[in-house]
Amino acid sequence: MGPLLLARSAIDRSAALRGDDDWLAGAWAEERTRVVVVDDGQALVRRDGREARLVLLSPAEAPEGARHLLGVDDDGVAYFSVTAPLAGGETGRGGPVPRIVAPLGAAALPEGEPVLAGLRQVGALLGDLDAGLLVYAVALDAWHSTHRFCPRCGGPTEVRAGGHVRVCPADGSQHFPRVDPAVIMLVHDDADRCLLARGPQWPEGRMSVLAGFVEPGESLEHAVIREVVEEVGVNVTAPRYLGSQPWPFPRSLMLGFFARAVSTELSLDPEEIAEARWFSRAELLAAMENGEVRLPPAVSIARRLIETWYGTELNGDW
């Protein structure tokens, strides 16, 4: 069923170049360099047949804003991200640009002019290069937006290493982008049913697999077992790893697992789970066809877990 859609990339992150200020300046001056502009987790995209493509600008076209190195491709083209408002056209001028707020297919994207969209909306439509660039740019932007001050002394920090380090000039401490590991797991029982649940903040019918953050000093496997029993009261064993992908909302790394239930009676934590149900494959398909259940979008690792258990791709999402 292909790669995890937000785990794709087609550039070298070029860590060795981040500290070379002369190289960074030269790369920014190069006409071939391309820039993705990020505005509140979204970027300009344009329809290209059945795909969406990022609108990548030259440095001369890019607006002013925080600049971060993303990497270099096999042809030697450097890629940067810039954080800046995009209220108008491709360079922030002109009329309003529509913002896309829900996942959609390529046919639903308007022809011609670009729109503002994020990973949840168009991540599944982007190619490997664009998907990797946008995930990276959004993740860096989210980290910088919440780490402007030193956690040790409270003083303002300065950006270094092409956007990959913040340094406190007062105490000399260095601070690096962080990710929050979270386990996400499809629980199945000996009758080969899967367990899906709905969070209290979700509308009726929106269901997914269980997930939760890894706690300090905890292994991934223990986190899987703990989260399932905490959320739905089911004991599981033998967590089996599927894969991982970034989920920069704002800085999660989702680590996907399957886990076998050794108990099936449900006892829900009402603060976390509003509804949970066991589904056979036939029951899940019927519930989707009659609109009773809507699955997570294709861009999510939750969807991949469900489809891997089901055995094929499923149509329809949130």
UniProtKB/TrEMBL annotation:
Pfam families: NUDIX (PF00293), NUDIX-like (PF09296), Zn_ribbon_NUD (PF09297). It catalyses: a 5'-end NAD(+)-phospho-ribonucleoside in mRNA + H2O = a 5'-end phospho-adenosine-phospho-ribonucleoside in mRNA + beta-nicotinamide D-ribonucleotide + 2 H(+). It is an enzyme of class 3 (hydrolase). PROSITE patterns: NUDIX, NUDIX_BOX. Its EC number is 3.6.1.22. PANTHER family: NAD-CAPPED RNA HYDROLASE NUDT12, NUDIX HYDROLASE, NUDC SUBFAMILY. Belongs to the Nudix hydrolase family. NudC subfamily. This is NAD(+) diphosphatase. It comes from Planobispora takensis.
